[in-house]
Hints:
Blueprint (H helix, E strand, L loop, with lengths): L1 H38 L4 H7 L1 H17 L3 H13 L8 H6 L1 H25 L7 H10 L2 H29 L4 H15 L3 H21 L3 H19 L9 H22 L10
Helix pairs in contact: 1-2, 1-3, 1-8, 3-7, 3-8, 4-8, 6-10, 6-11, 6-12, 8-9, 8-11, 9-10, 10-11
Amino acid sequence: MLQKRTFSGIWQALRPALLFIALYLLLLSIGDVIYPGLAGISGLGPFLLQHPGLYRFFLIVFSMAGALIPVLREGRLRIIYFRQKERENRVLGRQIEAKRGLILACLVLAAASACLYGNFLVEAMSWNSASVPAMEAIYQEISPLAILAAFGIFTPFVEEFVFRGILYTGLREVLPAPAAVFLTSLLFGLYHGDLVQGVYAFGVSLLFCLSMELLRQFEAPWILHGVANFLPLVLSFLGVWNLLSGALWRYCFLICLLLSIAVLCAVLGPSREERPRT
Length: 278
């Protein structure tokens, strides 16, 4: 009976996330299919052919928004319920409440370091993602402010709403935290569509899930995801991205990641009053 309830709970958590992914991919596919037809329309065709990045940008944004609509209500209810249980079943409750700001700062620093290290490591290994040509076209045709708003704020909100707000909170109702983190991160990696982005997404998802588990607030993984997307874009727009891509900088980012995790572990460790006296 317990196993049946567990599998039922896992499916209830997976269902809205899978619906979002299916609708998002469907809308993207429809947009790609109708592109040649739109390009053949008199007046509109030459503009679309000259600005494929602009078309792709709006296709991604509207597809993501359209796929989010059917799961909005369920996600909102789950996030509220998860937040209400913040003070329940939490071993480190008081300690986390007292150091919430420091914990979030450590997680943000870890996310920033992980994203920079991961991006530069991918470049150093010369791994190619299938999405690179499309994104380069977008960067050439869309203003930096629009790109930052879309990929630094909007898409992190949508993805965190679905994967941490709906999927992770649903899985935590029936699974222990490590299993919920792994399954959420695995699906998040698969959602990104290719090996390079999938491995990277799986890694940063571990931090996003950790922030949701510790702080019990949807805003925490949204902030971390926004930082992870925002920082490389800003550095690229400022023209300093290539200056930071050397091996020395990669080691610095790795050390910063490890130090932020070490500080987080120290913060979450037992306080002096809670340590057993000998």
